[in-house]
Amino acid sequence: MYRELLKSFGPQHWWPVSHHARNPSQARLEIAVGAVLTQNTSWKNVERAIAAMFAAGLMDAAKLRAMPEGNLAEVIRPAGTFRVKAKRLKAFMEYLWAHRGGRLDGLGAGELAAVREELLTVHGIGPETADAILLYAVGRPTFVVDAYARRVLRRHGWIPTKATYGEIQRLFHQALPQEPQVYNECHALLVELGKRHCRTRARCAGCPLENLPHDERA
DNA sequence: GACCAGGCACATC
DNA sequence: GATGTGCATGGT
What we know:
Number of domains: 2
CATH class of the largest domain: Mainly Alpha
Number of helices: 11
C-alpha cells in the first residue's frame, strides 16, 4: 500500500509548516498547536487559526501560556470548537512548564512509550494528537492512525470494524520499516488518498490501491 | 439545509 | 468496556 501510494502521489513533505515559523523551536510549537487545532477539523480552517496566532504574536509558548483562555479562543475561532481547543492548548502549555521547562524538544529524548504515556495524561491530547506531536514535532517513530487510515484499512477488509487505535497502530508498526521518515510519509500519503478519492467505496476508478489484496471476510 | 472535516472528554448504560 | 453526545467553523 505504501509503495503504491508513494508511486502515485510522490513525497508529501509533511508536516506542513507555515512560512511564519522563524526557527526550529517555533516550528515544533506550530506543529504541536496544529495537531490540537486539527482535531475533527479541516486543515484549511486550521491554517487560518495558525495565521491568526502568528499575527497576534501567540506562536510562542510563554505568550500562549500567559494569554487568557477566552482571548485565545477568539483568536483561534476559525478552527472551530474554539473554546474546547483554547482550553486544550492552555492545558498543554501548563504541562510544558510543569514537566518540560516550557520546551518541546525534550520530547525527542527518553523512552518513547514513557513519553507518549506522559503526553496522554494532558487534557485534550489523545492517541492521535500525541503521536502527531511525537512524530512530526520531534521525529519519534510512532505511527499516526487517523480517520483516513482507519477507513482505508477497513475498506480493504484488513481490520475489523471494531479495531482499536492501538491494534491498527500495531499493524503499521509491524508492516513498515520502523523509521520516522517512513511513518511520516505513509500517514501523509493516506491523508492525500482520503482527500482525492472516494469516501464511500473500497474500489473506485483510478484509485492507486484498486489492485491490492482485498479481504472480503473481515 | 445536510453533511463533512487529519478527535477528544464526558455522561450514561 | 461499549455506545452516545457536545463542541463549532467553513467548504461542498
